Amino acid sequence: MTTPAVEAKGLYKVFGRNPALAVKRLKAGEPREKVKDAGTAAVIDASFTVERGEIFVIMGLSGSGKSTIIRMLNGLHDATGGEVLVHGDPITGIPASKLRGIRRERIAMVFQHFALLPHRTVAANVAYPLELQGVGKTERLAKAEEILELVGLGGWGDKLPSALSGGMQQRVGIARALAADTDILLMDEAFSALDPLIRREMQEQLLELQQKLQKTIVFITHDLNEAMFLGDRIAVMRDGRIVQIGTPEDILTDPANDYVEQFVQDVDRARVLTAANVMERPGTVSVTSGTGPRTALRAMSDNRMAAIYVTDRGRKLLGMVTDRDALKLIRRGETDLTTMLKPVAQTVGQDDVLMDLFVPAAESPLPLAVTDAEGRLVGIIPRITLLTALGPQTTETTEIPVILDPVSQTEIDEVLAAVEGSTPDTEEVR
């Protein structure tokens, strides 16, 4: 089993006259408010793991304890109780010299307000961690220019920080952290001081960098939409305690308590939920290729659809057949449904977010087909389900009938009645 990159075990942080007494009373069950005479409890019994290569977001309102936790992860704050492990090694209660070595080699930090050295050039700021590591000037400046290219600041190395915009300065802060070449990156409200458009751009760039570098990132934010956009998993804090840890989908669709439910009610669900979160089983919206046209037509009639998906026995999506084409086959006495297959123009993947599904859903003549990497039909998304999913809760719904120049119901009934009692088609609707 792989050792987590970061592990917190029963962390407490109390500021004040008698922190040890406050922790003892908290462990005995006293609420936070009752121990104020001994100290202010900023973090109470926090436990979590951060896996290697994961973006782990800690979020909460001001005063929830999230920034205190991140400072405990690199030893800027001593833990009053509990311990922090980095790659399995404890960093709580160790000598200062060893802690500095861990910070230098394993953990880098990006601050909210950039913390750039104003008298140094951009390249010199980025190269500063390498200078601390004893890397020669030529080598560290070359490395700095390489990383500046990576964060989109190529050609800006000889400028002073004052010549850069806020978003560009934050890129320098990220580049400096990357220059240290540590496995773990701590980001404390890193984008909170930026304008909304620049902030979104920085979030997207961070995800692009993560795709290339696969760092372990602990990201602190008070913005739920930011947490949902960035986090592989999210820890929600309230009054010093972690009240829920889960994926963005877990927290949005299954909040642990009323506080979390209220917290997530205004989140932009279209950017968080994926096709896999809302899709339904294909059910009667699909048949296998061995199904005869009469069975397919009956399924379309029963479900008020003008077409139906066709898969092979392994559920790979082959195409779709309309009611009009099924009627043609019945009248000709033919039984091979695949001779009338039409291509499916719009399919989506299980990981596609809802905001990317509206155009395909509008253009699809059937409930939107969800396929896996092998092209298998794994689910469908009716348009009404897609719209309902954007509300606080999803409910079971029925698809609004789709018009594809459909055959009249009377004509379908007449054809099916005419063949009633004859040999049935092979295979039933899936």
Automatic annotation (TrEMBL):
Residues annotated as domain CBS: 279-337
PANTHER family in the cross-refs: GLYCINE BETAINE/PROLINE BETAINE TRANSPORT SYSTEM ATP-BINDING PROTEIN PROV, GLYCINE BETAINE_PROLINE BETAINE TRANSPORT SYSTEM ATP-BINDING PROTEIN PROV
Gene3D superfamilies per the UniProt record, alphabetical: CBS-domain, P-loop containing nucleotide triphosphate hydrolases
Keywords annotated in UniProt: Amino-acid transport, ATP-binding, CBS domain, Nucleotide-binding, Transport
ABC transporter domain span: 26-264
Protein name (database record): Glycine betaine/L-proline ABC transporter ATP-binding protein
NCBIfam families: proV
Molecular function per GO: ATP binding
InterPro entries: AAA+_ATPase (IPR003593), ABC_osmolyte_uptake_ATP-bind (IPR051921), ABC_transporter-like_ATP-bd (IPR003439), ABC_transporter-like_CS (IPR017871), CBS_dom (IPR000644), CBS_dom_sf (IPR046342), Gly-betaine_transp_ATP-bd (IPR005892), P-loop_NTPase (IPR027417)
Assigned protein family: Belongs to the ABC transporter superfamily.
Organism domain of life: Bacteria
The species this protein was found in: Microbacterium dauci
